[in-house]
Amino acid sequence: MTRPRTHRRIQAAAVALATAAGALTAAAPAQAAHPACTTPKLAAGWYGDNRARLQQLIDQYGSCNPYRPGRTRPVAVFDWDNTVVKNDVGDATMFWLLRNGKIRRPADWKSTSRYLTPAADHALTTACAPLARPGAPLPTGTPEGAACADEINSVYGASATRTGAPAFAGWDHRTTEPAYAWLPQLMQGWTPAQVRGFAAAARTENLAAPIGAKQQVGTTTATGWVRYYDQQRDLIKNLQRAGFDVWISSASPQPVVEVWAQGAGVAADHVIGIRNTTRDGKLTTHLQGCGTVPDGADSMITYVDGKRCWINKEVFGVRGAAAEKVQPAPRRQVFAAGDSDTDVTFLRDATALRLVVNRNKSELMCRAYDNSDGKWIVNPMFIEPKKQKSSPYPCSTTGYTDHDGTPAPVRRADTSVIPDQTDTVF
């Protein structure tokens, strides 16, 4: 009499097990779609508590806090030269161009920069014009082209002719630097792919050269080596792993930085360098514009306030006059890293943390050491750090450079003057 009831209980148990098994099977794909989230950890090699502050940034803004696949990716922006690498990849490329005779003679040197002075135009014409016809490469890597190489190098590196005359005049010191812009302008006549090839050759040479190496450029010597900072490459890698949208903003030419950025895991479409306009696929002497500055005006490069404009334009899709203005916090980078006064504006725009590599640049160090909102951290250079600056930074008098080049006090957002600051991280 009990056997039918027992059979029914067995059947019920079997149904329950089958239902549970089905539920587990159905749940498996969802679990696979949301794997355990592990926050990446930074390697050692940082000054003081900087590693802990950076790790806190990753922990707070990374995709594991909380794990939400659809969340807006936090943006991190790095300067390039002397921030991610030691030394300057624009300089390395210029020296390679001169040593290998890859600068095409312009028909008129004044056409290479709207800011070039008559004195510089005359000096360059005198030194270079007899060497090649317009459009042909100048033989700056040969003995007969050494004087031309020296004149170009002087205008580029010192913003002056070899006799000391100013090479540029009349620019806005918060939106462009004519000497920086002159390098991509001298690449006129080449395709972006050809320039990337030049940059790759220079990269190979400079990474292979020993630290401290010099190279012959014209009749003078110049820095001949570059190194990636291991700590910065590790930081970039772990920010990306944590879900950050990592960008490079540099005042070196776009094709050049594209080549170098690959070595730090940043793709070309996340690089914002100085960008030429093109004609028939070749670079021209004119530059792309940003904000209210049109293409060809050559006055808004990735430099000081220009970096803000270009980041707003390329990263956040802001157009027109608004790109030149501070954006609401949700449309700004949470993290920024830089080493120079050229990086001040985009660093100030960062909403959570700002990393400064100390190269004794006055306005930047005034703001970093003042640290009025507690979001600035300072690190010595990772290779060959500078010694402590012997005198305070002149924040209260001449630490700021105005649009017309006039020195002025460095002011906080509330317009109060930052007092002079002592160099303490070196």
TrEMBL record:
Key words, A-Z: Amino-acid biosynthesis, Hydrolase, Magnesium, Metal-binding, Serine biosynthesis, Signal
Signal peptide stretch: 1-32
PROSITE patterns the UniProt entry points to: TAT
Family: Belongs to the HAD-like hydrolase superfamily. SerB family.
Location of region: Disordered: 387-426
PANTHER family: PHOSPHOSERINE PHOSPHATASE
The EC number(s) this enzyme carries: 3.1.3.3
Keyword Manganese (UniProt): no
InterPro entries in the cross-refs: HAD-like_SerB, HAD-like_sf, HAD_sf, TAT_signal
Top-level taxonomic group: Bacteria
Keyword Magnesium carried by entry: yes
Catalytic activity as recorded in UniProt: O-phospho-L-serine + H2O = L-serine + phosphate; O-phospho-D-serine + H2O = D-serine + phosphate
Swiss-Prot/TrEMBL cofactor(s): Mg(2+)
Compositional bias segments (type: Polar residues): 390-400
Biochemical pathway: Amino-acid biosynthesis; L-serine biosynthesis; L-serine from 3-phospho-D-glycerate: step 3/3
Protein name, UniProt field: phosphoserine phosphatase
Species this protein is from: Streptomyces polychromogenes
EC main group: hydrolase
